[in-house]
Amino acid sequence: MKSFNILIMNGPNLGHLGKRQPEIYGTQGMDNLPAMLKQLMGDNAGRVTLQHFQSNSEGALIDRLEATRADGTSGVVLNAGAYTHTSLALADCLAWIKIPCVEAHISNVLARSEQLRQRSLIGRHVIGVVAGFGLMSYALGVQALAMHLQEREE
Ligand code: DQA
């Protein structure tokens, strides 16, 4: 497998994972991710360089996404939090920068009680969606993205 730079992006209210509503979002923080990835991908995990960016601000997320055009990022695993359901601006950004992107959610948004969470404005601009596996959603997203990028190279 080739080497890839993957950016994990977390949107609003995802800066305190492990502490925020653990009954929904679990007790594990992002620091557990490398170990999970190793469990999932074995030695291939070493081929993936992970960066992490979190912001509560829509504009900062868009600025960071735009920066991927010039900073060697191979792909993005994006948990846009509530902006998933509301941000046309984030969707517009993904539509034109065209970075390979996986949408990730810790909870199974389709099974949540609020109907609004079942709608994703960014969904049409991503390769695929992983939801409902807790922190493992990010690891699965990274693995799927790395395999997608690898296939594209071949
Ligand atoms: C979330 C689901 C969203 O509906 C919510 O607003 C979040 C987190 C998830 O990871 O399950 O902040 O994206």
Outline of the structure:
This protein is of the alpha/beta class. The protein has six helices and five strands; from the N terminus they run E-H-H-E-H-E-H-H-E-E-H. It has helices at residues 22-25, 33-41, 58-67, 83-86, 88-97, 136-153, and strands at 4-10, 48-54, 75-79, 101-105, 128-131.
Main β sheet profile: 5 strands, parallel
CATH structural class:
Alpha Beta
- Rounded to an integer in angstroms, the radius of gyration calculated over CA atoms is 15 Å
* Class of secondary structure makeup: alpha/beta
Bound molecules: 1,3,4-trihydroxy-5-OXO-cyclohexanecarboxylic acid
CATH homologous superfamily designation: Dehydroquinase, class II
Q: How is the largest sheet built, in terms of strand order?
A: 2-1-3-4-5
Helix content: 25-40%
How many DSSP E strands? 5
CATH architecture term: 3-Layer(aba) Sandwich
